[in-house]
Protein backbone atom coordinates (compact mmCIF):
# COMPACT_ATOMS: atom_id res chain seq x y z
CA UNK A 1 0.00 0.00 0.00
CA UNK A 2 2.76 2.39 1.04
CA UNK A 3 4.70 1.35 -2.03
CA UNK A 4 1.71 1.98 -4.27
CA UNK A 5 1.17 5.38 -2.71
CA UNK A 6 4.79 6.44 -3.06
CA UNK A 7 4.87 5.05 -6.58
CA UNK A 8 1.83 7.05 -7.55
CA UNK A 9 3.16 10.21 -5.95
CA UNK A 10 6.40 9.57 -7.81
CA UNK A 11 4.44 9.37 -11.05
CA UNK A 12 2.60 12.60 -10.20
CA UNK A 13 5.94 14.26 -9.49
CA UNK A 14 7.38 12.89 -12.71
CA UNK A 15 4.53 14.16 -14.85
CA UNK A 16 4.77 17.52 -13.07
CA UNK A 17 8.47 17.70 -13.95
CA UNK A 18 7.74 16.75 -17.56
CA UNK A 19 5.05 19.42 -17.71
CA UNK A 20 7.41 22.07 -16.36
CA UNK A 21 10.41 21.08 -18.48
CA UNK A 22 9.15 19.81 -21.77
CA UNK A 23 5.42 20.33 -21.36
CA UNK A 24 4.91 17.01 -23.05
CA UNK A 25 7.02 17.39 -26.18
CA UNK A 26 9.68 14.78 -26.80
CA UNK A 27 12.32 13.86 -29.35
CA UNK A 28 10.95 11.24 -31.75
CA UNK A 29 7.26 11.95 -31.08
CA UNK A 30 6.44 10.91 -34.67
CA UNK A 31 8.79 7.91 -34.85
CA UNK A 32 5.93 5.47 -35.41
CA UNK A 33 3.20 7.75 -36.78
CA UNK A 34 5.29 9.64 -39.35
CA UNK A 35 8.89 8.40 -39.45
CA UNK A 36 9.76 10.49 -42.53
CA UNK A 37 8.80 13.83 -40.95
CA UNK A 38 12.30 15.13 -40.31
CA UNK A 39 13.55 14.01 -43.73
CA UNK A 40 10.65 15.70 -45.50
CA UNK A 41 11.03 18.98 -43.60
CA UNK A 42 14.80 19.03 -44.09
CA UNK A 43 14.66 18.34 -47.83
CA UNK A 44 11.96 21.00 -48.28
CA UNK A 45 13.92 23.65 -46.38
CA UNK A 46 17.07 22.65 -48.26
CA UNK A 47 15.50 23.05 -51.68
CA UNK A 48 14.01 26.47 -50.85
CA UNK A 49 17.31 27.54 -49.27
CA UNK A 50 19.04 26.64 -52.55
CA UNK A 51 16.83 29.16 -54.34
CA UNK A 52 17.04 31.85 -51.65
CA UNK A 53 19.41 31.59 -48.65
CA UNK A 54 17.49 34.37 -46.85
CA UNK A 55 14.82 31.79 -46.17
CA UNK A 56 17.04 30.51 -43.31
CA UNK A 57 16.95 33.63 -41.12
CA UNK A 58 13.34 34.04 -42.21
CA UNK A 59 12.27 30.69 -40.74
CA UNK A 60 14.31 31.16 -37.57
CA UNK A 61 12.68 34.53 -36.98
CA UNK A 62 9.22 33.19 -37.79
CA UNK A 63 9.59 30.44 -35.15
CA UNK A 64 10.65 33.04 -32.57
CA UNK A 65 7.67 35.24 -33.46
CA UNK A 66 5.39 32.21 -33.19
CA UNK A 67 6.64 31.19 -29.74
CA UNK A 68 6.55 34.66 -28.16
CA UNK A 69 2.89 35.15 -29.11
CA UNK A 70 0.40 32.57 -27.79
CA UNK A 71 3.20 29.99 -27.45
CA UNK A 72 4.72 27.79 -30.18
CA UNK A 73 1.39 26.78 -31.67
CA UNK A 74 1.69 27.84 -35.29
CA UNK A 75 -0.58 30.85 -34.64
CA UNK A 76 1.77 33.04 -36.68
CA UNK A 77 1.01 30.91 -39.75
CA UNK A 78 -2.72 31.60 -39.77
CA UNK A 79 -3.80 34.16 -42.34
CA UNK A 80 -6.88 36.36 -42.34
CA UNK A 81 -8.01 39.76 -41.17
CA UNK A 82 -6.47 40.84 -37.83
CA UNK A 83 -4.32 37.70 -37.60
CA UNK A 84 -0.80 37.88 -36.11
CA UNK A 85 0.56 38.04 -39.65
CA UNK A 86 -1.03 41.46 -40.12
CA UNK A 87 0.74 43.03 -37.12
CA UNK A 88 3.52 45.52 -37.85
CA UNK A 89 6.26 43.29 -36.39
CA UNK A 90 5.23 40.43 -38.70
CA UNK A 91 4.72 42.26 -41.99
CA UNK A 92 8.09 41.23 -43.39
CA UNK A 93 8.19 37.67 -42.09
CA UNK A 94 9.23 35.27 -44.81
CA UNK A 95 9.16 31.55 -45.43
CA UNK A 96 5.42 30.83 -45.22
CA UNK A 97 5.63 29.03 -48.57
CA UNK A 98 8.31 26.69 -47.19
CA UNK A 99 6.06 25.58 -44.33
CA UNK A 100 3.09 25.20 -46.69
CA UNK A 101 5.21 23.11 -49.07
CA UNK A 102 6.42 20.77 -46.29
CA UNK A 103 2.87 20.47 -44.93
CA UNK A 104 1.54 19.47 -48.35
CA UNK A 105 4.06 16.66 -48.62
CA UNK A 106 3.44 15.53 -45.05
CA UNK A 107 -0.29 15.37 -45.66
CA UNK A 108 0.46 12.88 -48.43
CA UNK A 109 2.98 10.85 -46.40
CA UNK A 110 1.04 10.82 -43.11
CA UNK A 111 -2.28 12.65 -43.33
CA UNK A 112 -3.52 14.51 -40.26
CA UNK A 113 -0.53 13.66 -38.09
CA UNK A 114 2.11 16.40 -38.06
CA UNK A 115 1.32 19.85 -36.66
CA UNK A 116 2.29 23.06 -38.40
CA UNK A 117 3.88 24.24 -35.14
CA UNK A 118 6.25 21.24 -35.23
CA UNK A 119 7.08 21.79 -38.90
CA UNK A 120 8.10 25.36 -38.06
CA UNK A 121 10.22 24.25 -35.08
CA UNK A 122 12.02 21.66 -37.23
CA UNK A 123 12.46 24.11 -40.12
CA UNK A 124 14.06 26.68 -37.77
CA UNK A 125 16.58 24.06 -36.61
CA UNK A 126 17.31 22.98 -40.20
CA UNK A 127 17.87 26.62 -41.15
CA UNK A 128 20.63 26.91 -38.57
CA UNK A 129 22.25 23.68 -39.78
CA UNK A 130 22.07 24.81 -43.43
CA UNK A 131 23.93 28.03 -42.63
CA UNK A 132 26.72 25.98 -41.01
CA UNK A 133 25.54 26.24 -37.43
CA UNK A 134 25.34 23.17 -35.22
CA UNK A 135 22.22 21.04 -35.36
CA UNK A 136 20.30 19.73 -32.32
CA UNK A 137 17.43 17.40 -31.54
CA UNK A 138 14.03 19.06 -31.56
CA UNK A 139 11.39 17.68 -29.19
CA UNK A 140 8.08 17.43 -31.06
CA UNK A 141 4.43 16.80 -30.24
CA UNK A 142 3.15 20.38 -30.40
CA UNK A 143 -0.41 20.86 -31.57
CA UNK A 144 -1.75 23.83 -33.51
CA UNK A 145 -3.65 26.69 -31.94
CA UNK A 146 -6.90 28.13 -33.24
CA UNK A 147 -6.39 31.75 -32.17
CA UNK A 148 -4.29 34.34 -33.99
CA UNK A 149 -4.79 38.01 -33.18
CA UNK A 150 -2.66 40.96 -34.24
CA UNK A 151 -3.45 42.61 -30.91
CA UNK A 152 -1.52 39.83 -29.11
CA UNK A 153 1.71 40.70 -30.91
CA UNK A 154 3.17 42.93 -28.21
CA UNK A 155 5.60 40.62 -26.38
CA UNK A 156 8.24 40.86 -29.06
CA UNK A 157 11.28 43.02 -28.30
CA UNK A 158 11.56 46.11 -30.49
CA UNK A 159 14.77 47.00 -32.38
CA UNK A 160 15.49 49.85 -29.99
CA UNK A 161 14.79 48.01 -26.72
CA UNK A 162 17.12 48.32 -23.69
CA UNK A 163 18.69 45.23 -22.13
CA UNK A 164 16.45 45.61 -19.08
CA UNK A 165 13.33 45.55 -21.24
CA UNK A 166 14.60 42.63 -23.30
CA UNK A 167 15.39 40.76 -20.07
CA UNK A 168 11.88 41.42 -18.80
CA UNK A 169 10.26 40.17 -22.01
CA UNK A 170 12.38 37.00 -22.04
CA UNK A 171 11.95 36.37 -18.31
CA UNK A 172 8.18 36.30 -18.83
CA UNK A 173 8.85 33.00 -20.66
CA UNK A 174 11.47 31.79 -18.16
CA UNK A 175 14.31 32.66 -20.51
CA UNK A 176 17.30 34.05 -18.63
CA UNK A 177 20.02 36.49 -19.67
CA UNK A 178 22.18 33.76 -21.22
CA UNK A 179 19.21 32.57 -23.25
CA UNK A 180 18.61 36.16 -24.31
CA UNK A 181 22.16 36.77 -25.55
CA UNK A 182 22.34 33.37 -27.26
CA UNK A 183 19.00 33.78 -29.02
CA UNK A 184 19.77 37.33 -30.14
CA UNK A 185 22.95 35.72 -31.52
CA UNK A 186 20.63 34.27 -34.16
CA UNK A 187 21.26 37.65 -35.82
CA UNK A 188 24.47 36.09 -37.09
CA UNK A 189 22.25 35.37 -40.11
CA UNK A 190 19.70 37.75 -41.51
CA UNK A 191 19.09 41.36 -42.33
CA UNK A 192 17.27 44.41 -41.03
CA UNK A 193 15.43 47.08 -42.99
CA UNK A 194 17.08 50.51 -42.80
CA UNK A 195 13.97 51.97 -41.19
CA UNK A 196 14.68 49.98 -38.02
CA UNK A 197 17.97 51.75 -37.29
CA UNK A 198 18.16 54.91 -39.43
CA UNK A 199 17.81 56.98 -36.24
CA UNK A 200 21.26 55.65 -35.26
CA UNK A 201 23.05 56.87 -38.38
CA UNK A 202 21.34 60.20 -39.04
CA UNK A 203 20.22 62.70 -36.47
CA UNK A 204 17.82 65.51 -37.12
CA UNK A 205 20.61 67.87 -38.14
CA UNK A 206 22.50 65.62 -40.48
CA UNK A 207 24.97 62.80 -40.68
CA UNK A 208 25.80 62.42 -37.01
CA UNK A 209 25.68 58.87 -35.75
CA UNK A 210 25.29 57.12 -32.44
CA UNK A 211 28.70 57.70 -30.79
CA UNK A 212 28.90 54.08 -29.61
CA UNK A 213 29.09 52.96 -33.25
CA UNK A 214 32.31 52.40 -35.15
CA UNK A 215 32.49 55.77 -36.95
CA UNK A 216 34.24 54.21 -39.95
CA UNK A 217 31.29 51.85 -40.40
CA UNK A 218 28.71 54.66 -40.37
CA UNK A 219 29.39 55.99 -43.92
CA UNK A 220 28.83 52.47 -45.31
CA UNK A 221 25.48 52.30 -43.59
CA UNK A 222 24.56 55.81 -44.71
CA UNK A 223 25.29 54.81 -48.27
CA UNK A 224 23.19 51.66 -48.08
CA UNK A 225 20.39 53.51 -46.29
CA UNK A 226 19.98 56.93 -47.93
CA UNK A 227 18.31 59.47 -45.69
CA UNK A 228 15.77 60.32 -48.39
CA UNK A 229 15.00 56.63 -49.05
CA UNK A 230 11.89 54.82 -47.85
CA UNK A 231 13.80 52.76 -45.27
CA UNK A 232 13.12 49.44 -47.00
CA UNK A 233 16.69 48.64 -48.11
CA UNK A 234 18.13 45.78 -46.08
CA UNK A 235 21.49 45.40 -44.38
CA UNK A 236 23.17 42.29 -42.95
CA UNK A 237 23.00 42.17 -39.15
CA UNK A 238 26.43 40.48 -39.11
CA UNK A 239 28.48 42.52 -41.54
CA UNK A 240 30.65 40.44 -43.83
CA UNK A 241 29.22 37.10 -42.65
CA UNK A 242 25.45 37.45 -42.98
CA UNK A 243 24.82 34.00 -44.46
CA UNK A 244 26.90 31.96 -42.01
CA UNK A 245 25.82 30.92 -38.54
CA UNK A 246 29.01 31.78 -36.63
CA UNK A 247 30.27 34.02 -33.80
CA UNK A 248 31.35 37.01 -35.89
CA UNK A 249 28.07 38.74 -34.98
CA UNK A 250 29.39 39.03 -31.39
CA UNK A 251 32.76 40.13 -32.70
CA UNK A 252 31.17 42.88 -34.70
CA UNK A 253 29.11 43.95 -31.67
CA UNK A 254 32.30 44.36 -29.66
CA UNK A 255 33.69 46.66 -32.33
CA UNK A 256 30.68 48.97 -32.53
CA UNK A 257 29.35 47.30 -35.65
CA UNK A 258 26.04 46.19 -34.28
CA UNK A 259 23.25 47.39 -36.54
CA UNK A 260 20.22 47.44 -34.27
CA UNK A 261 20.24 49.43 -31.07
CA UNK A 262 18.81 46.38 -29.24
CA UNK A 263 21.86 44.35 -30.38
CA UNK A 264 24.38 47.12 -29.70
CA UNK A 265 23.26 47.46 -26.07
CA UNK A 266 24.22 43.82 -25.40
CA UNK A 267 27.80 45.04 -25.66
CA UNK A 268 27.43 48.40 -23.93
CA UNK A 269 25.49 47.01 -20.93
CA UNK A 270 27.51 45.38 -18.10
CA UNK A 271 24.88 42.68 -17.50
CA UNK A 272 25.32 41.18 -20.95
CA UNK A 273 28.81 42.16 -22.11
CA UNK A 274 30.62 39.21 -20.43
CA UNK A 275 28.28 36.77 -22.18
CA UNK A 276 28.95 38.43 -25.53
CA UNK A 277 32.67 38.14 -24.77
CA UNK A 278 32.33 34.47 -23.92
CA UNK A 279 30.40 33.62 -27.09
CA UNK A 280 32.70 35.62 -29.34
CA UNK A 281 35.69 33.65 -28.13
CA UNK A 282 34.05 30.22 -28.00
CA UNK A 283 32.03 28.96 -30.90
CA UNK A 284 31.40 25.76 -28.94
CA UNK A 285 29.90 27.64 -25.98
CA UNK A 286 27.72 29.65 -28.31
CA UNK A 287 26.52 26.59 -30.23
CA UNK A 288 25.75 24.63 -27.07
CA UNK A 289 23.89 27.52 -25.44
CA UNK A 290 22.03 28.39 -28.63
CA UNK A 291 20.72 24.83 -28.98
CA UNK A 292 19.69 24.71 -25.31
CA UNK A 293 17.97 28.07 -25.47
CA UNK A 294 16.18 27.12 -28.67
CA UNK A 295 14.78 23.98 -27.03
CA UNK A 296 13.59 26.11 -24.10
CA UNK A 297 12.09 28.73 -26.37
CA UNK A 298 10.36 26.20 -28.59
CA UNK A 299 8.57 24.77 -25.56
CA UNK A 300 6.92 28.06 -24.63
CA UNK A 301 3.19 27.57 -24.12
CA UNK A 302 2.99 24.45 -26.28
CA UNK A 303 -0.34 22.72 -26.72
CA UNK A 304 -0.06 18.95 -26.39
CA UNK A 305 -2.30 15.94 -25.81
CA UNK A 306 -5.92 16.91 -26.37
CA UNK A 307 -5.30 20.66 -26.65
CA UNK A 308 -5.30 22.33 -30.03
CA UNK A 309 -5.57 20.43 -33.30
CA UNK A 310 -3.54 19.14 -36.23
CA UNK A 311 -4.32 21.58 -39.01
CA UNK A 312 -4.91 20.29 -42.52
CA UNK A 313 -3.34 23.40 -44.02
CA UNK A 314 -1.10 25.71 -42.06
CA UNK A 315 -2.73 29.01 -43.01
CA UNK A 316 -6.21 28.12 -41.72
CA UNK A 317 -7.83 26.39 -38.75
CA UNK A 318 -9.73 23.19 -39.52
C1 LIG B 1 23.19 66.03 -34.25
O1 LIG B 1 24.45 66.32 -34.82
C2 LIG B 1 24.92 67.62 -34.60
C3 LIG B 1 26.17 67.82 -35.45
O2 LIG B 1 27.21 66.97 -35.07
C4 LIG B 1 25.15 67.79 -33.10
O3 LIG B 1 25.65 69.09 -32.83
C5 LIG B 1 23.83 67.58 -32.38
O4 LIG B 1 24.01 67.63 -30.99
C6 LIG B 1 23.20 66.24 -32.74
N1 LIG B 1 21.84 66.17 -32.24
C7 LIG B 1 21.34 65.11 -31.62
C8 LIG B 1 19.90 65.20 -31.20
O5 LIG B 1 21.98 64.09 -31.38
C1 LIG C 1 29.81 44.98 -44.87
O1 LIG C 1 30.71 44.10 -45.50
C2 LIG C 1 30.78 44.05 -46.91
C3 LIG C 1 31.93 43.18 -47.28
O2 LIG C 1 31.48 41.87 -47.24
C4 LIG C 1 30.80 45.44 -47.49
O3 LIG C 1 30.92 45.45 -48.88
C5 LIG C 1 29.54 46.15 -47.00
O4 LIG C 1 29.31 47.36 -47.65
C6 LIG C 1 29.71 46.32 -45.52
N1 LIG C 1 28.82 47.25 -44.88
C7 LIG C 1 27.52 47.14 -44.54
C8 LIG C 1 26.93 48.31 -43.85
O5 LIG C 1 26.83 46.17 -44.80
C1 LIG D 1 32.51 46.00 -40.56
C2 LIG D 1 33.30 44.81 -40.16
O1 LIG D 1 34.48 44.92 -39.89
N1 LIG D 1 32.67 43.68 -40.10
C3 LIG D 1 33.31 42.44 -39.74
C4 LIG D 1 32.39 41.58 -38.93
O2 LIG D 1 32.97 40.33 -38.66
C5 LIG D 1 33.36 39.61 -39.80
C6 LIG D 1 33.92 38.31 -39.37
O3 LIG D 1 34.84 38.47 -38.31
C7 LIG D 1 34.35 40.38 -40.62
O4 LIG D 1 34.64 39.66 -41.79
C8 LIG D 1 33.76 41.72 -40.97
O5 LIG D 1 34.68 42.48 -41.66
From TrEMBL:
It catalyses: 2 a phenolic donor + H2O2 = 2 a phenolic radical donor + 2 H2O. It is an enzyme of class 1 (oxidoreductase). It is found in: Secreted. The keyword Disulfide bond applies. GO terms for molecular function: heme binding; lactoperoxidase activity; metal ion binding. Its EC number is 1.11.1.7. Residues 24-318 form the Plant heme peroxidase family profile domain. Pfam families: peroxidase. Keywords: Calcium, Disulfide bond, Heme, Hydrogen peroxide, Iron, Metal-binding, Oxidoreductase, Peroxidase, Secreted, Signal. The keyword Secreted applies. GO terms for biological process: defense response to fungus; hydrogen peroxide catabolic process; response to oxidative stress. Residues 1-22 form the signal peptide. Disulfide bonds join 34-110, 67-72, 116-314, 194-225. PANTHER family: PEROXIDASE 25-RELATED. CDD domains: secretory_peroxidase. Its cofactor is heme b; Ca(2+). The record marks 61 as: Transition state stabilizer. Belongs to the peroxidase family. Ascorbate peroxidase subfamily. GO terms for cellular component: extracellular region. Ca(2+) 1 binds at residues 66, 69, 71, 73, 75, 84. Removal of H(2)O(2), oxidation of toxic reductants, biosynthesis and degradation of lignin, suberization, auxin catabolism, response to environmental stresses such as wounding, pathogen attack and oxidative stress. These functions might be dependent on each isozyme/isoform in each plant tissue. This is Peroxidase. It comes from the Eukaryota. Ca(2+) 2 binds at residues 188, 238, 246. The active site is at 65 (proton acceptor). Substrate binds at residue 157.
Amino acid sequence: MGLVRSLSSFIVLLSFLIAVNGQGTRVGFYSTTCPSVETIVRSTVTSHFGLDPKIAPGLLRMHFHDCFVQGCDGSVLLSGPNSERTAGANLNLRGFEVIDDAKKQLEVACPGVVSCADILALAARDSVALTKGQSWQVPTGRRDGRVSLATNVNNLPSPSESVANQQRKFAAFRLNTRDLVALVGGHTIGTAACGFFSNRIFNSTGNTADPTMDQTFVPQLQQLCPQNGDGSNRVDLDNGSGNTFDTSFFNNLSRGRGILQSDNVLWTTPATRPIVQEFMTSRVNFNVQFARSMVKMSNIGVKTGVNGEIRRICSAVN
